[in-house]
Amino acid sequence: MNASSIIFNPAFAWPLLIAAGVAMALLLAFALWRGLKGWALRVLGAAALLLALAGPSLQMEERAPEGDILIAVVDDSASQGLSDRRVQSEEALADLQARVAGVEGLELRITRMGDGEDNRGSLLMTTLAEALAEVPRDRVAGAVLISDGRLHDLEAAPDLPAPLHLLMTGREDDWDRRLQVVNAPAFAILDEEQDIRLRIDDEGAAPGTTLVDLAVSIDGAEPEVYQVPVNEELILPVTLTHGGQNVIQFTTPTAEGELTDRNNAAVVTMNGVRDRLRVLLVSGEPHPGTRTWRNLLKSDSSVDLVHFTILRPPEKQDGVPVSELSLIAFPTQELFMEKIDEFDLIIFDRYKLRGILPASYLMSVRNYVEAGGAVLVAAGPDLAGAQSLARSPLGAILPGEPTARVLNEAYSPEVTDLGQRHPVTRGLADFAPEGGWGRWMRLIELDETSGNTVMCGADGRPLLTLDRVGEGRVALLASDHAWLWSRGFEGGGPQLELLKRLAHWMMKEPELEEEALTAQSSGGEVTVTRRTMAEGAKELTVTRPDGTEEVLPMEEVAPGLYQSTFASGEIGLFRLAEGDQTAVVAVGPASPKEFEETIATGDLVEPVMAPMRGGVLAVEDGAPQLRAVNEGRAAAGRGWIGFTPRGAYVVEDIRIVPLAPPWLMLLLAAGLAVAAWLAEGRGRRARKA
């Protein structure tokens, strides 16, 4: 295969040669206008000179033709495993290989595409672009996708030099049921109704069902089943009852004949938060610790604080008229009887019985705790006296009984062995200043009657005791000197951290529960954490989305804190169990992207195929023929697909022969100039004669 062409190697820049040509044309026009003799010879001489300066040469190439390439991208993603699509793909590929083998000069390059990482779906266009980058562009005669047409990277479509076709797997009578969450809030206020919007759609050749069952399960509990319409947006009200992470799973049963049940479930993770925390602080008398409690509670903008303090006890008689002591009466009846259930926490700070709060009010507080409320008693010396709260109806739920002895001596608070395992005091020693915690100066001696003593004072006596009463919680702090830490006495201590944890534990914040099982998924791994007060080895039972179970040991990473990490390996809902604690964790979406939409279609690829006039052919209709078509013509039709021969070649040898040697063109120009001079001389002599 040979080819010839004329090339130029000018002695001067082209603009200069063009200017010379223009000047020659002007002189020719002038000669014609004046009727001068010999102008033709002079023009030929000038043209010969310009041609010599342009340096024309004959270039002769010896070319070796190269074959055309047809690229085939085979979709091996998860959706191709539905029905008999994978068998269809292999049959279509085998037939394409056979037909390409029968076309001289056409080569087939095969690329296979699996699932995209991180649930990115089918990356057909990315795979096609990578395949195009590996071959010379001028040899690409066409490309064929063997797929169900479900791609998720249309924006990565390459600029195609030749027609693109889709051999579409799947069946015309395929149908599938799909459950999808349209909108779900990431946060929800506890005990307030939140709406989750979802849809159940029947796609493809569906049987025409109008109602289906929908099961709703929160945190792996027994699901509630509802009948809901198909192909309509549904609004499902959900009310969260506990803070922290709430995993809500929606499931619809598998119908006979549908392609897959992998998209029949959806998982929503919502964090339950409190709208406002209402705290009632009851101070028996002003003292330095009162300011500490107020600073702690007012530092949190989400806390609504009601402070009830006794500034002037009833027994104080100094003759001041009552009308000058206060403007309005404090609403004790409303607070302690009518609206007590609206408080999340009640704190008694150095309170003693003075007849201001009658026994019926304190009985109401006791009932409030047993029904799920929380009470913290920060004791002063009065707890050991005759006016002690322990002698009121509230004393029946306190975890300690005072011995009537008050120790006014310095001691360093310490976390007990049990406290090392409790979330309220675990790791509290890490907050100790250099040299250790500062000392406290007072301790009310108690006999522990129930609960867990997590901190102790002088000679190991109980300092902080926590207990559960009914549905509620009680904490007893046997000292009123926690404020010394906030003042930095002898270096101070983690007073703010301790009281903050204590308040949050009493208000049942999930991260401070003693017995809990939690899990976090990140980077293909699931980390499970078990908090417990019990000692001994722990084993985690993991139930995977496919129903298989495995038992994993848990390592104690801190007192009362066990962890285990395992590779998820698949996407879906994992159920976890250790002892009497259970939890669920969603790894990725409940239905992977590959199974969100499963009905085969060519509509998604159509925008990429249209510029080069490619086509979509269903594999179930039979194997298409392969034809060569010219560029710009229709490249697909009924039962056939086309490729565009590119005529690519490799130049093996080049020979260059000058067409106008400088010496020859100079001699020719000189001869023509002399001939023109002679012709003009004869003309002048003839005119004289």
| Poorly predicted runs | none
**Tally of DSSP β-strands:** 36
The termini sit apart by 65 Å
**If you compute it from the alpha carbons, what radius of gyration comes out, rounded to the nearest whole angstrom?**
45 Å
Mean pLDDT: 85
CATH topology group of the largest domain = Rossmann fold
The number of helices is 12
Assigned CATH architecture of the largest domain: 3-Layer(aba) Sandwich
Tell me the domain tally: 5
Shape: elongated
- Assign the CATH class of the largest domain: Alpha Beta
What is the assembly state of the chains in this entry?
Answer: single chain
Strand content: 25-35%
Q: How helix-rich are the residues, as a percent range?
A: 10-25%
Structural class: alpha/beta
Strand order of the largest sheet: 16-15-17-18-24-23-22-20
For CATH, the homologous superfamily of the largest domain is named as: Class I glutamine amidotransferase (GATase) domain
The largest sheet, given as strand count, sense and whether it forms a barrel, is: 8 strands, mixed
